[in-house]
Design brief:
Oligomer: single chain
Strand content: 15-25%
Helix content: 25-40%
Distance between the termini: 38 Å
Order of helices and strands: EHEHEHEHEHE
Strand order of the largest sheet: 1-4-2-3
Radius of gyration: 15 Å
Largest sheet: 4 strands, parallel
Low-confidence stretches: none
Length: 161
């Protein structure tokens, strides 16, 4: 297999400085895949996002179906793919999960100062929490981590509610 998913992140800001500079360098990605039906096939947005990345890192803005196709293709090629997958919304990640796209862990940036971190009920709707719990039951781990220098914080997602 020549595909390695290095990071799956949900961030409504998509590709911004923290992802483009810190995470991209830390995981040494060759591709950043933005899964967002709103921007799929938006050549202008793809060019704008590409400007924030080194030339060796390719960006694709795709639908869930196109993500599945990318994964299938990359798994069968000789080229090594080190991939960051960004979702703008949890609902799109959940839809990908329902369509059998496999992830081991999903990262959220801290919603506020780590010192002020509250229960996930403060940050997510009941529907979103239900989606998180369904994905957790399937073995997906969720955590907060903003930068590579932060440790992964699984605690808020492990609360029993």
């Amino acid at each position: 297999m020549s595909l390695k998913i290095k990071l799956v992140r949900i961030d409504n800001r998509l590709l911004h400085a923290t992802v483009a500079l810190n995470w991209n360098s830390f995981v040494n990605s060759s591709h950043i895949i933005v899964v967002d039906p709103e921007y799929e096939n938006d050549a202008f947005m793809a060019k704008v996002l590409q400007l924030s990345l080194p030339p060796k890192t390719k960006i694709n803005i795709v639908s869930i179906d196109s993500l599945k196709q990318f994964i299938r293709q990359a798994e069968n090629e000789d080229e090594k793919y080190q991939v960051i997958i960004l979702f703008k919304k949890l609902s799109v990640l959940y839809q990908a999960f329902q369509e059998k796209v496999q992830f081991q862990e999903v990262q959220f940036p801290y919603p506020a100062s780590r010192l002020m971190l509250k229960s996930i009920n403060s940050y997510f709707s009941k529907t979103e929490i239900a989606q998180i719990r369904i994905m957790q039951q399937a073995g997906i781990k969720f955590y907060f981590q903003t930068t590579p220098m932060d440790s992964k914080d699984y605690n808020a997602f492990n609360e029993v509610k």
